[in-house]
Design a protein that fits this description.
This protein has 193 residues and is mainly α. 60% of the residues lie in helices and 3% in strands. It is globular, with a radius of gyration of 18 Å. It starts with a helix and ends with a strand.
Length: 193
């Protein structure tokens, strides 16, 4: 048992080191989650459980143990490859509905572990929306030079929903050398930088 624990620890450490070296790090997810959850009174144990489920969102999407049939569903949790405002808004609607249903189900069952798991996965998706979309470019700094605090949730809560013309998300390729930037709403038009 001791040898198995040691081997598992070495593999985990190696995976985390490789993830950082290749630019695939989850540190920002951990930091943002910790700050927000601490501000809202979550315990240290709850924060750690949420951080792990947040990290597992990346792990399972890239894990060799996952089946190809689930890959597309797992990748959606990263807000990748939504090439139009309509696709982004449709996915937000689906995500929020699923998160609401999952949290209501966990609450009815008084399942704290499941609730923390859902919070971690949900936070990951929200964080990736801002990291993988052109939201910031569509919401430039104010006249005072500070970034605006507009959020997609605030926009969705507004009736009618304001135009988010040009809103889209992209995805970097698996090789970290070439970066494809989409230049139109068409999925197949891009330029290499």
């Amino acid at each position: 048992m001791k040898a198995l624990t040691r081997t598992a620890s070495i593999l985990l450490a190696g995976f985390l080191l490789l993830a950082q070296i290749t630019g695939f790090g989850t540190g920002s997810h951990f930091d943002v989650a910790r700050t927000v959850l601490k501000e809202h009174g979550f315990s240290e144990d709850a924060i750690k459980m949420i951080q792990v489920s947040n990290w597992l969102t990346d792990y399972y999407a890239t894990s060799p143990t996952r089946s190809d049939e689930h890959r597309a569903d797992l990748e959606k949790l990263h807000f990748d490859n939504l090439y139009s405002e309509e696709q982004v808004l449709d996915y937000w609607s689906l995500l929020l509905r699923n998160l609401r249903n999952s949290t209501e189900s966990a609450a009815k069952k008084d399942d704290v572990f499941r609730m923390l798991l859902v919070i971690g996965i949900g936070l990951h998706a929200v964080q990736d929306f801002y990291a993988h979309s052109n939201w910031a470019e569509l919401h430039p700094r104010g006249k005072d030079g500070y970034y605006r605090s507009d959020t997609i949730i605030k926009a969705l809560a507004t009736t009618p929903v304001p135009s988010l013309k040009g809103l889209k998300t992209g995805k970097y390729p698996d090789d970290r050398v070439t970066c494809l930037l989409y230049t139109s709403d068409a999925a197949d038009e891009f330029r290499t930088v």
